[in-house]
Amino acid sequence: RKVAIVGAGAVGATFAYAMAQNGAADEICLIDLNNELCKGQVLDLSHGLPFYPTINIYAGSEKDYADADVIVITAGAAQKKGETRLDLLKKNSAIIEGIVDQITAQDSKATIVVVTNPVDILTKIALERSGWDRSRVIGSGTVLDSSRFKYLLSEFFNVYVGSIHAYILGEHGDSEFAAWSMANISGVQLDEYSKQLGIDNWPEKKKEIELEVRDSAYHIIDYKGATNFGVGLALVQIVGAILKNQRRVLTVSYHLEGEYGISDICLATPCLISQNGVASIIGTELTKEEQEKLVNSANILKREYSELKR
Ligand code: NAI
Questions:
Q1: pTM exceeding 0.95
Q2: What is the ipTM of this complex?
Q3: Distance of CA 55 from the midpoint of ligand 1 (Å)
Q4: Order of strands across the sheet with 56-59?
Q5: Could you write out the DSSP letters of every residue in 281-302?
Q6: Phi then psi for 28, rounded to 5 degrees?
Q7: Catalytic pick among 47, 165, 172, 219
Q8: Using one digit for the tens of pLDDT, what is the confidence trace for 47-81?
Q9: Closest by alpha carbon to 213, among 275, 262, 145?
């Protein structure tokens, strides 16, 4: 079971470090345009070999796409001063297309997991460029945002985070939203539980928590320049679910083709992940307000996508 990681920067290397400890992969191959960086990361990661489950970690090349089971793309340019969001999107879109061309040229049978931002648009770009089935070209979506949401709920209610089921859906970005109708603590709806606890400002708290999730990345980037640990672990859950054929539900970015009344765009909804990527969407009845928010996310992403293609 081989994982190829394209982009050995902060996110790629942190994911490699977490994946190596997870034990689901036998081989991790790092690929980066910056050879020195890639060599350094591989050497540093390899010094942990006595402490990981048995694994082979090495610097690779595009040839490694041929027999990879999962290819995780974290390669991208960072936003430069004075550069617009659209400039960055154009740059990263060209990078993703180049990588996907190399992957398809190797006749790879892998599942592609796009992480580079803006992840939903770039997942759509990767899917179109590959010509592959939508099940095999997915994005990291809001798996990270959903874990941030669970963390904040666990702090607020003082309940073990593993007992909380909650999802952030839509765009991985400003239009994402909390699917409160699906959120529960071991089956107990949060409105009900907050009533039991006598929390009368719960409606305001909900808004605060949702905002805090949405702005988490901005805060971390202000503090330390980039985010890497949370996303590294979120990726282990996605890639581990594929390698172990776990049939696990995760909010990855997936190309909708009529589900939720939405088509032709990738965004995050709860998806069942198996050895071939997304096996199916776990459809759910959203409230009217949530459905509108999902459609709003889709419309924003579609606008951005058509700007890019103009
Ligand atoms: P970074 O700048 O540390 O690493 C990016 C790496 O990509 C660099 O080492 C660069 O040399 C490499 N690269 C650029 N073009 C390449 C190409 N054509 N082929 C191979 N390698 C190439 O950036 P960092 O912090 O690792 O972030 C990576 C991406 O992940 C960013 O787009 C960031 O916004 C995104 N991200 C996504 C998250 C999510 O939840 N989807 C969360 C956190 C970050």
A1: yes
A2: 0.99
A3: 24
A4: 56-59, 27-31, 2-6, 70-73, 111-114, 137-139, 253-257, 263-268
A5: E------HHHHHHHHHHHHHHH
A6: -125, 125
A7: 172
A8: 999 999 999 999 999 999 999 999 999 999 877 77
A9: 145
